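Extended Data, panel c. Modelled sequence:
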Amino acid sequence: MRHKGTIGGSIANNDPAADYPAACLALGATIVTNKRQIVAGDFFKGLFETALADGEIITKVTFPRAETSAYVKFRNPASRFALVGVFVAKTAQGARVAVTGAGSSGVFRWKEAEAALDKAWSEASVAGLKASADGLNADIHADAEYRAHLIGVMTKRAVAAAR
C-alpha cells in the first residue's frame, strides 16, 4: 500500500501546499507521537519542517469538535495541491483561520480574519479584509499579490461553506 497517503504522513511531511496541516492548525489538533503530544500550533515549524525529533513517529491525531468548519482551496491545475487553501473553524475558543499553499514558511493562521469572524461569523465580516502579500510564495503559478487576493476569496468561500 505504498501508493496510499496517510494523515500522519501528510502532516509529518508538512508540504506547504498540503491540506491536512491547515485542518490541524484551524481545529487546534493535537499530534500524538510515540514519545509525546504536540499541539498543532507548536508542531509546524516551516517548509517541510516540524517539531518531530529523530526516531519520533506520529501515532494519532486528535481533533476537538468544532461548532462548524469548512475547507476550500484553489487548486493548482497540474498537481491538484492548493495554490491557496483556507480552513475556517468556529470553536469554543473562537474563530480560527488557517491558510495553506500561500505562505513562504508553510501553513499559517490569519489572525485578522479570526478577529473579524469573532465579532460576527459571516462572509460579510471577511469580505473587506485584504491579506498582506508579505511573506507569501511567488512562483510560476502565482505571484504573492495574487495569492494574497486568493486568501481573501477562499476565506469568504470557506465561511459560506461552513454556514
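The first strand starts at residue 30 and ends at 33. This feature is highlighted in the accompanying rendering.
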